[in-house]
Specification:
6 helices; homodimer; 6-stranded parallel beta sheet; 207 residues
């Protein structure tokens, strides 16, 4: 069975996950429009609603919207303030939800959204409290949204553990004892969401 | 074994759950300081950081902080805007996290926090997308925070299904086919959190 080529709007290509997803999408010969905070033709700041709107206006209709980015401050609970919580929410939770809400008119019937979550929704780590909040929010959002998207459209979240590429750079102290996964495995989970038929799921990668 | 009497700061007493929790705490002869948006001596608006700070300043040190309230707009996904998402987050997610962050200096060693979540983090319901987001965030926050509170302090979330008292008022259309639970069962879950030894958990009530 041939997988039909899809037009994919990929948000985030300069990060470890984003570049691995881009590589895999191009290998699969999908038609990729990409946007990044730092590089490429189309710039996007996902914390800025107007920036998301401008990106959709340029990209137009697609079969898949894929987000690989989110920024969350890393702080111990006892140093966390409400401002940090809002920063985390803006950086990865409400921003990704905004990508979906604004994307509804642009995603074709049978299309999909794929968002980024993370292991912190399911386990504690010193410095990870902001990530816990937003990852938990994303995973529950995906459950709720899947039932309401309509027109056979789907939505999933990808929850990677720590990346091999991160361990190579910063060592194992971040998640001691955890087995890291290569970004290519995370990209595989994105592909599973984009080309598959599942919806309302969080795909755990390496945990 | 006698359960030691605790000083409990109960936030929200006028709602169905809050009044059931208050009744149970008084039956158990705990020393309750309560605050509510609508009634009683001590008023609190949990979406206002200064209001939370003022309440803690008046209540002082406690063994347990208990929140029974959160307000989330009910809207279908396709009518939801980023402003609604922020309203939901402010009404039940960041507000409850603020209660914990500001409460850290006021909760004694061995004490606890108990927050309110809800069934929407695990199942979709038309109109429940805002609740999904915030309930998921609360449940993951509780996992992360439990590991960092220190001084043998605990934190849990309570996730009720629809209340019998709500069904009596508005019928069964909200969650068709679900078996409602009386608020007294939800209050029991709060007591399990306040008097028990569990932490980092979400107690499901009726689902």
């Amino acid at each position: 069975m041939n997988i039909p080529k899809k037009r994919v709007f990929l948000i985030g290509t300069s990060g470890t996950v984003g570049s691995a997803v881009l590589t895999m999408l191009l290998e699969r010969e999908h038609d990729v429009a990409s946007a990044d905070f730092d590089m490429g033709d189309l710039r996007i700041d996902i914390t800025d609603s107007a920036s998301i709107a401008a990106a959709y206006a340029r990209v137009g209709e697609v079969d898949a919207v894929v987000c690989t980015v989110g920024v969350v401050p890393l702080l111990p609970l006892h140093e966390t303030t409400l401002a940090h919580v809002h920063e985390a929410i803006r950086g990865k939770l409400s921003s990704q939800i905004d990508i979906v809400l604004q994307g509804l008119p642009f995603v074709r019937a049978g299309g999909s959204f794929t968002l980024i979550s993370g292991i912190m929704s399911r386990m504690p780590w010193q410095g990870g409290i902001g990530a816990s909040i937003v990852d938990g929010g994303i995973e529950a959002f995906v459950i709720g949204a899947a039932a309401e998207l309509g027109r056979d459209r789907r939505i999933n979240a990808i929850s990677p553990t720590i990346l091999q590429e991160s361990v190579d750079k910063i060592g194992t102290n971040l998640l001691p004892g955890h087995q890291p996964v290569p970004a290519a495995h995370v990209a595989g989970a994105y592909l599973r969401s984009i080309e598959g038929i599942e919806t309302g799921q969080t795909f755990l990668v390496g945990h």
